[in-house]
User: Which sequence fits this backbone?
């Protein structure tokens, strides 16, 4: 069930963007979400009261170190990490992936096989291809062109005893499909390989649980999850301990996460990210939840999911009844064994995707067109002739009235 009007207003009060005059209707949330007041407040507080280097003996430096450590612990709780030392933070998912590849590179031998998909954002494709310089062989797990699913049987045929890594997305930033990563992990581990999951398009819509995912590496960006332009990479402690260090030569190989954070983290953004956890706990409590912080966060996401599903179905129903529209991904919130996040892409016969978005722009509604760095997927589905897809990406703070406004103006052009 959707959030009530009172609940939705409670949510929207946490985001300063919604108090602005002539406010944009934000339906490009997969490109970047709105930022929480509590996140901005933490960044502001850190910069104005603790902007010093860590590790000194004086009080302000000690307080700064405590705040950065608390933020890492908050992120560990947010993603259900075993140990907060497994939490590696950095500037972006793309940046963290390139750092990961540098750390993995010395362990790669000629003939090792890496499996990537053709549905992922380039961050989880291009980085892995760099291992070809060490003799790695890249194999591609291709999406089924009819079902638009990554089928386990296809992966099974690609896996071998030479497979070292499989890289995939938890949810496609174009298709919106939620992939069965836990099932994939079991299959990957049977041949002794490891799984790297890009959770960028998943994390804004479901509570990340790295333990339940079965992944060996899990990465996503906070600026898609109501925070600052920053990101996190999680990995099992034993795995991260084995990776080559990326920091100064005198940094101990067991000094996690510091050995994988050259130049250290951004202190104020790290501290700001702790506000995401606080917001989710607060929302869980406002919905009547009880128990642990994780239980509160799960309740918040359960309510958000139900709200987002109702809004997504509102738009999908409109699109399904337009014969000239092709929905790129599941045409319903749930189909078969697959579910989707409310990231909805489509193309229209006889119209460029850009022309549709330009029409919507004039009404103060933010949607987008293009390939969204999923170039291999757009090419595989022959969508370049449309100029990519039109993408509407919904978040839990959007309203039914906003979707109706979008539908009204879409109906003028499609």
Assistant:
């Amino acid at each position: 069930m959707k959030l009530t009007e009172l609940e939705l207003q409670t949510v929207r009060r946490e985001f300063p963007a919604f108090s602005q005059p002539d406010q944009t209707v934000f339906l490009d949330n997969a490109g970047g979400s709105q930022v929480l007041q509590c996140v901005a407040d933490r960044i502001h507080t850190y910069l104005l009261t603790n902007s010093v280097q860590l590790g000194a003996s004086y009080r302000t430096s000690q307080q700064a170190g405590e705040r950065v450590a608390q933020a890492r612990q908050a992120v560990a709780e947010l993603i259900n990490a075993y140990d907060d030392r497994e939490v590696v933070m950095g500037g972006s998912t793309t940046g963290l992936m390139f750092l990961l590849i540098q750390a993995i590179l010395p362990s790669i031998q000629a003939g090792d096989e890496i499996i990537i998909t053709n549905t992922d954002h380039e961050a989880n494709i291009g980085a892995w291809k760099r291992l070809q310089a060490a003799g790695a062989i890249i194999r591609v797990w291709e999406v089924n062109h009819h079902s638009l699913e990554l089928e386990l049987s296809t992966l099974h045929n690609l896996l071998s005893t030479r497979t070292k890594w499989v890289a995939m997305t938890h949810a496609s930033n174009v298709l919106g499909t939620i992939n069965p990563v836990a099932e994939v992990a079991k299959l990957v581990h049977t041949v002794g390989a490891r799984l790297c999951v890009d959770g960028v398009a998943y994390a804004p819509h479901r509570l990340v649980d790295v333990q339940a995912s079965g992944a060996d590496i899990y990465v996503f960006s906070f600026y898609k999850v109501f925070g600052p332009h920053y990101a996190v990479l999680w990995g099992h402690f034993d795995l991260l301990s084995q990776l080559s260090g990326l920091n100064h030569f005198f940094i101990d190989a067991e000094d996690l996460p510091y050995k994988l954070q050259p130049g250290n983290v951004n202190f104020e953004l790290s501290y700001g990210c702790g506000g995401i956890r606080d917001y989710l706990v607060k929302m869980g409590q406002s919905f009547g939840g009880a128990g642990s912080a994780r239980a509160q966060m799960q309740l918040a996401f359960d309510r958000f999911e139900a709200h987002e599903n109702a809004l997504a179905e509102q738009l999908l129903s409109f699109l399904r009844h337009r014969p000239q529209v092709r929905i790129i991904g599941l045409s319903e919130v749930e189909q078969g064994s697959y579910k989707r996040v409310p990231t909805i892409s489509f193309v229209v016969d006889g119209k460029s995707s850009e022309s549709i978005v330009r029409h919507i722009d004039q009404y103060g509604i933010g949607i987008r067109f293009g390939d969204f760095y999923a170039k291999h997927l757009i090419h595989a589905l022959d969508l370049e002739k449309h100029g990519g897809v039109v993408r509407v990406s919904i978040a839990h703070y959007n309203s039914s009235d906003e979707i109706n406004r979008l539908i009204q103006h879409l109906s003028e052009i499609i």
About this structure: The mean pLDDT is 97. Residues 217 and 235 are 4 Å apart (CA to CA). The first strand starts at residue 25 and ends at 26.
